[in-house]
Amino acid sequence: MENTAKEKVKEIFGKNADKYVTSDIHAKGDDLALLVDWLKPKETWTVLDIATGGGHVSKTLAPHTSQVISTDLTEAMLENTAKHLRAEYQNIFYVVADAESLPFLNGTFDAAVCRIAPHHFPHLEKFIAETARVLKAGGRFVLIDNTAPEKEELAEFMNMTEKLRDDSHGRCLSKTEWRQLLQEHGLEEIQSADRKKTFQFPSWVRRTAETEEQIEQVRRHLLSATEEELNYFQIRQQHQEIESFAIDEWMVLAEKK
């Protein structure tokens, strides 16, 4: 089951690699500007970018650090990202790596970042354990991901929306669940921020949906929303067509004890 999930991730992201380089949500998020401010990276640092996708974290941190190790499970995605970044950034190095089994020694990195990716990982506790393991004592970790509402029914609706569009989606955790995982693995929360992230439905759904039938399933699911779901996710529709909706995103900075 686990291997099947990871093969699905590689299949979907390999086919859509270039879309993640150019996607506004991934390339221009406000959180990228906050990364440097929160981490306060030093020129001597070696930083790990876990599941880099389109390389936006690596690109943001490279000018401020000694080197960035940019990793991804999907080789085709990583090759595409390297093609876009190699000419401009000589201190980014690319390694095919599973976030749940990182090929690095204990205490290797001054900082690690994982952005808008963990909801694809089958075993999030392994991911957090591995991140904590490869960080130096006092190392900093920034996690940024879509989060599920605390209310179970809303969380189920949100995760189903993602799963219908993208079969490689695993599960978005709530902030409570994330905080428990961080604490269990010796990562102490320093600061965090919440924001609502709005998706334009037509471009969002076509980023990973493979057929018109799949797009229709997602549309029907959003149209079936209860009043509470309509309000929480700010679902905007006109003439039975979904225009946009919003989900929660959480950014947290933690330090290894």
UniProtKB/TrEMBL annotation:
<dbReference type="GO" id="GO:0008757">
    <property type="term" value="F:S-adenosylmethionine-dependent methyltransferase activity"/>
</dbReference>
<keyword id="KW-0808">Transferase</keyword>
<dbReference type="Pfam" id="PF08241">
    <property type="entry name" value="Methyltransf_11"/>
</dbReference>
<dbReference type="InterPro" id="IPR013216">
    <property type="entry name" value="Methyltransf_11"/>
</dbReference>
<dbReference type="InterPro" id="IPR029063">
    <property type="entry name" value="SAM-dependent_MTases_sf"/>
</dbReference>
<feature type="domain" description="Methyltransferase type 11">
    <location>
        <begin position="48"/>
        <end position="143"/>
    </location>
</feature>
<protein>
    <submittedName>
        <fullName>Putative methyltransferase YcgJ</fullName>
    </submittedName>
</protein>
<dbReference type="GO" id="GO:0032259">
    <property type="term" value="P:methylation"/>
</dbReference>
<keyword id="KW-0489">Methyltransferase</keyword>
